[in-house]
TrEMBL record:
It comes from Linnemannia elongata AG-77. Keywords: NADP, Oxidoreductase. Residues 179-209 form the Rhodanese domain. The keyword NADP applies. It comes from the Eukaryota. Gene3D superfamilies: Medium-chain alcohol dehydrogenases, catalytic domain (3.90.180.10), NAD(P)-binding Rossmann-like Domain (3.40.50.720). One of its GO terms (molecular function) is quinone reductase (NADPH) activity. InterPro entries: ADH-like_C (IPR013149), ADH-like_N (IPR013154), ER (IPR020843), GroES-like_sf (IPR011032), NAD(P)-bd_dom_sf (IPR036291), QOR-like (IPR047618), Rhodanese-like_dom (IPR001763). This is Probable quinone oxidoreductase.
Length: 328
């Protein structure tokens, strides 16, 4: 049965985790090109924190959530290839909700052996990690790469993929516990970050005979940016893809000339603009999962009622791997 209302988590004023409040609203109606999904799990991503706090200003009121999984309960008249009852995972908007309307370009049917929990856990971070490591900088065997926040949701996946591709992965983390996890997930070397990134710069110099790394995958942003520029080698690539510590300051491009460094800010959405590109990344990521080459570590499945705690844990650097909300 499809309800006429949806219970959602809504933000009416930017703020801390207490801005996340449950409420009931009329259920969203899919356009002819969309499906309606009864959401089982919504992934919690750092971008939800940027939106909640106003760092990525979105019009208010807003419902956070960029991904989820569940069952299709209604299909728009122009939709092809999907039907009511299909189990799906998707990248979308407003997914902290009983129901989500989803464009088919970012909708994937889940194979029978993939659970709804895994579906919501892999779809955004998995595609991000695979997309970044292939397209933002195509990691090669023997490369040295730095992965910041290596025990985080995306970081653990980048570390695994880096090792799979034959690269030497140097991860950064803030605790011993996270260091052990990063090592177990492919980081050959791990640097504990306490006060600043000098220890990382020293380690990189030692390991690479002073040359620096081929690529830095940097989701921390403001706090790591200068150091990332320092440790990247001549002709190397700095891949920025997140702002966990804040946005990076403006960059004078002339600074790149000393090493001909390439700097990119990579959003996964630009790798999945067509169904073909989206499906290719989904199929490849699922294949990695099936072969055991990629493992998703779920930190915790929070009941949706505990959404504030989930945000506090993620922004408080208390989590590793993937956070999910059990919606229903
Ligand atoms: P994580 O699980 O990686 O959590 C963030 C981690 O960043 C923390 O655990 C912490 O690890 C580290 N960190 C370092 N400095 C800070 C700081 N000042 N404040 C908070 N955290 C800090 O989150 P996600 O896996 O959800 O996301 C990782 C990053 O990837 C985010 O920046 C996100 O925006 C980005 N992202 C980008 C996408 C894109 O398309 N560009 C898509 C998906 C995610 P530690 O304590 O070990 O330092």
């Amino acid at each position: 049965m499809v309800n006429s209302t949806a219970r959602v988590i809504r933000v009416t004023k930017y703020g801390d985790a207490s801005a996340l409040q449950p409420t009931n609203i009329p259920r969203p109606i899919p356009k002819p090109t969309q499906v309606l999904v009864k959401v089982a799990y919504a992934g919690v991503n750092y971008v939800d924190i940027y939106e909640r706090s106003g760092n990525f200003p979105s019009p208010l009121p807003l419902i956070p959530g960029r991904e989820g999984s569940g069952e299709i309960v209604e299909v728009g008249s122009e939709v092809q290839g999907f039907k009511v009852g299909d189990r799906v995972a998707f990248i979308g908007k407003d997914t902290y909700s009983d129901y989500a309307v989803v464009d088919t370009v970012h909708l994937a049917k889940l194979p029978d052996h993939v659970s709804l929990e895994t579906g919501a856990a892999f779809i955004l971070q998995g595609l991000t990690a695979v997309g970044l490591i292939r397209k933002a900088y195509a990691v090669q065997k023997g490369d040295w790469i730095v992965v910041h926040a290596a025990a985080g949701g995306v970081g653990l996946l980048l570390s695994q993929l880096g090792r799979l591709l034959g690269a030497h992965v140097i991860g950064t983390v803030s605790t011993e516990e996270k260091a052990a996890l990063a090592r177990a997930n492919g980081a050959e070397h791990v640097v504990l970050i306490n006060n600043g990134y000098e220890a990382l710069e020293k380690k990189v110099r030692e390991l690479t005979n002073g040359e620096g790394v081929h690529a830095v995958f940097d989701s921390v942003g403001q706090a790591t940016f200068e150091s990332s520029l320092n440790i990247v080698r001549r002709l190397g690539t700095l891949v920025l893809f997140g702002n966990a510590s804040g946005e990076v300051p403006p960059l004078n491009l002339m600074r790149l000339s000393s090493k001909n460094v390439k700097v990119t800010w990579a959003a996964v959405y630009n790798y999945i603009t067509t169904p073909e590109d989206f499906n290719e990344l989904v199929e490849d990521t699922l294949e990695y999962l099936e072969k055991g080459q990629l493992k998703i570590a779920i930190h915790k499945v929070y009941p949706v009622e505990d959404v504030q705690q989930a945000h506090l844990d993620l922004e408080g650097r208390k989590t590793t791997g993937k956070l999910l909300l059990k919606i229903q």
